[in-house]
Amino acid sequence: MDAIVISGADPRLESEIEAGRDSALHVKSAAKADQGIDQYALYGPYIALPPGHYRIELALTVDARATGRVGIELCHSGARVRLYDRPCFEWELARGLIRVSYPFEHPVENLEVRLRVSSGFAGSIRQLSFERLPAGPS
User: Fold this and answer.
1) Measured between alpha carbons, how far is residue 105 from residues 5, 37, 38 in Å?
2) Nearest to residue 123, comparing CAs of 36, 15, 25?
């Protein structure tokens, strides 16, 4: 299986805080008085993957960020089933590449990658990719 590469301009990538779209999905969260409310800068693309170990990469640019958590999630079934959830590391945000390695033991339908951000976040989602890794030795 070839890698699946989805541009930030692709409408399968959605956002609760979209601020425009050209070659990337631009996002901007208002600085709210209530800093405890997170929003999804990215969700989608609702794809199906066969079983296997995958490298999932999200290329982005962070233009502004208030204090608060930025997190990456993998989920399906309308986000009712969360497979993976972790905070993003500062060095990932600085270099503009968030990488997740995940073993799907069974086929997955309607897979979503979600980027959860706190208020005050601004940036651009450039690309999301899924690459199936070769099976290791048995």
Assistant:
1) 22, 33, 30
2) 25
Tokens of 134: 């070769």
DSSP string across 74-94: EEETTTTEEEEEEEPPHHHHH
Q: pLDDT for 77-98, tens place per residue?
A: 888 899 999 999 999 999 999 9
Handedness of CA 44, 48, 54, 55 (dihedral sign): negative
Strand, helix or coil for residue 95: helix
Structure tokens at 28: 């901007």
Nearest to 115 by CA among 64, 71, 69: 71
Between CA 48 and CA 65 the distance in angstroms is 32
pTM exceeds 0.90 for this model? yes
Helix (H) or strand (E) holding 64: strand 52-64
